[in-house]
Predict the 3D structure of the following.
Amino acid sequence: MRYLIGSLAAILLALISVPVWAGELDSLLQQAKDLGAPMAAVQRAIAISRQSSFTKKDALAVFDISQPSANKRFYFFDFKSGRVTAHYAAHGRDNGPNAKATKFKGFQTHLDMVPLGPLKTAHSEVMNHYKTIVDRYDGTVYRNMVVVVLEGVTSYNSYINHTPPFKWILHPNWYTTAAFRAKNNGVLGRSNGCITVDPVDNNQLVTRLQDGALIYVTVGDDPIEQYL
């Protein structure tokens, strides 16, 4: 694994466009490993994020929907600070039970499944439905929430760009909060196919990922082609 981390650091050092030293890249990748990130998928995500279509090069995220929802399985890579953080994120209703996604094939036709593969963030915006989130367990009110629109960039996930009036977004909701987790044995609720994060983390993630960053949705280290 030490060799793998060194190899990943070499890839990052060759490709990344922000000033980061090799030692800092080693640290970043070690953080990701320690947090439980799927490292082969991280390698793919880093390579994909260097493509010209992703204009934001100083941040990306990897969402591993193979892990239980009780895990912090949304990994945010901040190349400016050299930090990796992990966050709670819900999978779609048609991906399987609340506790753990079990279905990954068929996401192109089952729109309540999270789309796999590379997604590009577009602009952030305020949506009335998500502007204010009220926790239904403890009554906490989260105000001034924003969302970020997601775009599919491959032939197998570009369908999300053509589902009017619906938009695919990263957004907050009450079924990812600490109170929800406390009342449900740590498990999250499920989304309608979008990526849903804890309101506590939402605005910071949206702000850093908006406007051209990669969010790579993966099933562990499996190649996406396995689920097409």
Q: What stands out?
A: The chain has a mean pLDDT of 92. The domain at 2-227 is CATH 2.40.440.10 (L,D-transpeptidase catalytic domain-like). The chain has one domain: 2-227. The first strand starts at residue 59 and ends at 64.
